[in-house]
Write a structure and sequence with these properties.
It contains twelve helices and twelve strands. The chain is an alpha/beta fold. The structure holds S-adenosylmethionine. The site of S-adenosylmethionine has 24 residues, from helix 7, strand 4, strand 5 and helix 10.
Amino acid sequence: MLNVRAALKNGIAQLREADVASFTLAAELLLLHVLGRNRTWLYAHPEEPIADADAQRYFDLIGRRAAGEPTQHLTSKQEFWGLEFEVTPDVLIPRPETEHVIEVALDRLALREIRAGRPQTTSGEGLQIADIGTGSGCIAIALAKELPAANFLATDISPAALAVAKRNASRHQVADRIDFREANLLVPHSPLATRHSPLSFDLIASNPPYIGRREAPSLPVEVRDHEPHAALFGGEEGYELYADLIAQSAHHLKSGGILVLELGHSSLPAVQPLLDTTNWTSVGVTNDLAGIPRVIAAERL
Ligand SMILES: C[S@@+](CC[C@H](N)C(=O)[O-])C[C@H]1O[C@@H](n2cnc3c(N)ncnc32)[C@H](O)[C@@H]1O
């Protein structure tokens, strides 16, 4: 019978052969998934035999990963902001760089509290927050965990994505504070009732689709062929959605409200001029760990 060490070695070799990025990590995650174990166990039990049915399942997943399916689609999960999110092919797999959106949003809210002479930490009491293009729900849910008294509107153009986001909100016990709505940016498909009517927010955050269609041929196959195109492509150039996003945000933010947007790797020159001085102040850009301008934030005048 195959043991853990041999299965891992064989899986790693197959993924390396197929040119899969981070092949060792992928083979480990798939084996952990099949065995229902954690990493510590894996390395403490190299001689543990693997049942034939588990070995078959594992090598089936290795084959699918080698053919291009993302590891997260095979395990149905991805960690974001220390929380585990369900992911399916209907949502973008949350990316680590999107955590900068959460950091910037929390920093800006804390700064607002200090300026108002209130304690730096806030529970979010009374705050209305919107997450536009919520996908898996990761931004709204991470913020809801950090701000346990805030209320949220989370929109997406994709009903299938919203179904996943709602399950993630329930999993993290914040579903009662997030109103998930099918909408084109902030324009709902059906009228919004009660809590957010009229729409007026203290914070709007968004990680919009920002890849250019003309970049599609150069995308890794696990992205281009497996993640939803509505989540990836913002238009031919990529930055096309930002103008509407910023105009609608200007309309729906309270005075002193905060806008936090994730940027594509070359979006900054197209996006920064849209935050004009008639409507916006305190414009700031945050680089990601790779030094790419990743988040732009501004305050509504
Ligand atoms: C880049 S993904 C971000 C998902 C998630 N917020 C995250 O950070 O992982 C963009 C999301 O916006 C949604 N979307 C695309 N166009 C939209 C539009 N016009 N209005 C609302 N949502 C839209 C997509 O369906 C997708 O879920």
